[in-house]
Amino acid sequence: MIGALATQLIGLFVDDGFLAAGILIAVAAIASLILLGALPAWLAGLLLTLSMPAALAASVARSARQAPRPDAADEGPPAPP
Amino acid sequence: MANLTTVLSVAGASFAASFVEAVEALTIVLAVGLARGWRPALTGAAAALAALALIVAVLGPLIGAVPLRALQFVVGVLLLMFGLRWLRKAILRAIGVVGLHDEDAAFQRQTGELTEAERGQELGLDWIAGAAAFKAVLLEGIEVVFIVIAVGAARGRIGLASAGAVAASILVAAIGAAIHRPLARVPENALKFAVGVMLSAFGLFWTGESLGVEWPGGDPAILAFALIFLGVAAALVALLKPRLAKPA
């Protein structure tokens, strides 16, 4: 049961690996640039504001693209959960 | 304005998110109670609540020891992952890629599992039933604790966030005790949509603030972020739903 609990706890934050990776990479890149002094804070805010909805849109579009189409229900792999 | 915005957004997000989690926990506890009796159901639920109280008692003092910037960064990133995950799933449900969460179906599934277990073994069945209730309440409760900490800690509004969560839990428990059925009519996907939007907005706000970003307007920027996420989510639904809809 502890293993199942741990798996479900991780699942609270990571459902689609593509989305989770997108968020972490974007935040890490922006934070690194700020720490290096290569990015002003206002631009970091703008990048965060643009990159998070973009990561969401990319993840949803990817899942929708992988979902079976109604007119080709037997083709293609099922969408990730 | 800033204070009112913070109060409403913290309490509202905490209440709505906790309401959804409490409904899901209630479904399992009801299934256990009606299938195997209220003793294992309530014992499992009470044990989970005790475990949650222990987690809060241990983690609570630690939060105060973490520097504010670090706390905002960790909570902000986790909130972004948590909130965008909810929002993504709500969008996929709205466009039909993922089936809607059905409390009646979850109730039937849990009841079926307990009935199946009953056929397989008689001894220890109450333990299995109690463990099912324990696991459901603990997992959903941990999500509630995380949400309370996430939306409340970075602005010292833990009490307000806790009040929203406690109110939602009491409301759901009272309704469940009164009707003894899963709350299948709750518009769960709409709630998850709204909560995903709010939690993502909080996550974006805290992450930026922890990196030194001074958001225009201060706290009300959270509402602006919520509108951005809402707009993107609504656009995705409008764009993708017709493509995935079955031809007439």
Task: Describe the protein.
The complex is a heterodimer of chains A (81) and B (248). Chain A is mainly alpha-helical and 81 residues long. Chain A has helices at residues 2-11, 17-35, 41-66. The two termini of chain A are 22 Å apart. The model of chain A is unreliable at 73-77 (pLDDT under 50). Helices cover 83% and strands 0% of the residues of chain B. Chain B is globular. In chain B, 49% of the residues are buried. The mean pLDDT of chain B is 84. Chain B has one domain (2-242). The A-B interface holds A 1, 4-5, 8-9, 12-16, 19-20, 23-24, 27, 30-31, 34, 41-42, 44-45, 48-49, 52-53, 55-57, 59-61, 63-64, 67, 69-71, 79, 81 and B 73, 77-78, 80-82, 84-85, 87-89, 91-92, 95, 97-98, 131, 135, 138-139, 142-143, 146, 200, 203-204, 207-208, 211-215, 225, 228-229, 232-233, 236, 240, 243-247.
Calculate the mean pLDDT score of chain A and round it: 83
Largest sheet of chain B: none
Rounded Rg of chain A = 17 Å
Largest interface: A-B, 40 and 45 residues
Q: What oligomerization state is this entry in?
A: heterodimer
Molecular shape of chain A: flat
Order of helices and strands of chain A: HHH
Estimate the strand proportion of chain A.
under 5%
Helix fraction of chain B by DSSP (H/I, runs of at least 4): over 70%
C-alpha end-to-end distance of chain B: 49 Å
| Total domain count of chain B | 1
Average pLDDT score of chain B: 84
> What proportion strand of chain B?
under 5%
The ordered H/E elements of chain B are HHHHHHHH
Query: Termini separation of chain A (Å)?
Result: 22 Å
Radius of gyration of chain B: 20 Å
